[in-house]
Design brief:
The chain is of the alpha/beta class. The chain has one domain: Rossmann fold (3-Layer(aba) Sandwich). About 40% of the residues lie in helices and about 10% in strands. It is built from eight helices and five strands, in the order αβαβαβαβααβαα.
Length: about 240
């Protein structure tokens, strides 16, 4: 760099460094999370993905697409959860249509981990007997007071929490004479959740269970393979009838 203005390649290098840092920081938790997800699926359970605001992108990307497990879905694809993430008492409303059961796994994504809605979703999911895995930034969460009336943070109410390592403010650069830029939370959270999916598939294979993985519909045999999986999980994930 010839000045203090970051370039696009600097952003890519910083993202790559953050992802590499998760190998040591989260390797053990990823393995544990993969085992929880793999066992849940092998036992007939479902993985429910939830996020508000831009974290919805992570929940959507990790379910119902090629190269993910078929026994998973995104909780609520509506846009309004992003507008009520600071409202308490809506966790049950979010989970109600998703038929969360004891033995299921609920993944809750929230970069800050301080807004009431994702926290309530995690608490209500645990009350239903589900295992809760959280994803977010510890640095961001600890840099700000909780907005929940009970002072809870997402990282405090989960069975397992994966730290993205993203700095407070969700930006990698503060160039001269401008606001901070270079958002990182979505990329890091998506990388971690797909790492968990990979680990879950390994766990299932190692434990003699055929992993139910979606194939690309744009590859030979993809439609036929996916149709069989869709029928297998339609009773727990009704949205599959429209996929």
């Amino acid at each position: 760099m010839t000045d203090d203005q970051p370039r696009g390649v600097d952003y890519l290098n910083s993202i790559a460094d953050l992802i590499r840092s998760r190998v040591d920081a989260c390797g053990e938790q990823i393995a544990k999370a993969g085992g929880l997800v793999g066992r849940c699926i092998a036992d007939g359970g479902i993985i429910h993905m939830f996020g508000t605001g831009h974290s919805r992108l992570v929940a959507i990307d990790a379910a119902g697409r090629a190269a993910t497990v078929a026994a998973s879905h995104s909780v609520s694809s509506e846009e309004w959860p992003g507008r009520v993430e600071r409202v308490e008492g809506l966790g049950e409303v979010m989970l109600g249509p998703s038929d969360v059961r004891s033995g299921d796994v609920v993944v809750v994504v929230s970069n800050s981990g301080i807004n009431p809605l994702p926290i309530d979703v995690a608490v209500d999911a645990k009350a239903k007997g589900a295992t809760v895995i959280g994803l977010g930034s510890v640095a961001h969460s600890q840099a700000n007071p909780s907005r929940h009336s009970k002072g809870r943070r997402l990282l405090d109410v989960c069975d397992l929490f994966l730290d993205t390592g993203v700095p407070a403010g969700d930006a990698l650069f503060t160039p001269k004479d401008t606001d901070a830029v270079g958002a990182a939370s979505t990329v890091l959270a998506a990388s971690l959740i797909h790492a968990v999916v990979v680990e879950s598939v390994r766990w299932m294979s190692d434990n003699s269970y055929d992993p139910p993985v979606w194939r690309s519909r744009n590859l030979p045999g993809g439609d036929e393979h996916n149709t069989a999986l869709r029928a297998r999980y339609l009773d727990r994930i009704p949205e599959l009838r429209w996929s």
